[in-house]
Amino acid sequence: MVCGRGRGAGSLGGMDREVLRYYERGEEDRRLREGDGRLELWRTQDVLRRVLPAPPARVVDVGGGPGVHAEWLAADGHAVELVDPVPLHVEQASRIPGVAARLGDARDLPVPDASADAVLLLGPLYHLLDRADRVRALREAARAVRPGGVVAAATIGRHAALHDMLRRRRYRDKRAIVDASVETGVLRATPDMGFTTAYLHGADEPPREFADAGLPGARSYGLEGAVWMFGDLEELLEEDREAVLDALRAVESAPSLLGVSAHVITAATRPR
User: Fold this and answer.
1) Do the beta carbons of residue 17 and residue 11 sit within 8 Å?
2) Is 204:211 a contact under the CB 8 Å cutoff?
3) How far apart are CA 147 and CA 270, in angstroms?
4) What is the CATH superfamily name and number for domain 12-267?
């Protein structure tokens, strides 16, 4: 899920070519529907169903990828417009009933002022390496949402690459890349790491970026906590999914655990 770029050679809408190639592989839909990725999907649903306006609402899903989240949002009764810079994603999402999909950039949304009840950025901030670009994307979301409406954005945790490589017993091989991501926040991933160039947020960064975009009072929700680092996670999810979700919900905003989670959703309402 992406709608943005890092610095470097541009492509569609200024999107980094490496990032575009990664998403053109067409694996994003499957990633969230299978294996460990289901925990991210289920927890995203859990958080958003509590913070979004009740359906029917007009939801703009920015950087919505192939429409994994747009699909369940539309099934819940929302009117969903998906905006993404990857043509493959727009083509895939346009096949989903109740979802309108178009090409676009998170930093320059093709959406009228105050026209949405909620704007989601469940991926754009991953690939905007410059803080100014991330704040600009959030400011665009704030412009597009009505006063009192919700803006919610996903970020990747600063130590996600470190924990992932340790979990997969690959830290020794990728130590230089991983240590640099911890120090600077910029992950220069290689293809065999399973991801692409990304910005990894410190736990305290998203609320500050929201505030600078005119969205004060943001709250962050850790999606996976420490559970994603457990062995046999698939088995645990099959055996006791509801207990896992209940436990994560209970600690989702604990400051000491936000930095452990692989993904964090931060949400705020546009001031009236």
Assistant:
1) yes
2) no
3) 5
4) Vaccinia Virus protein VP39 (3.40.50.150)
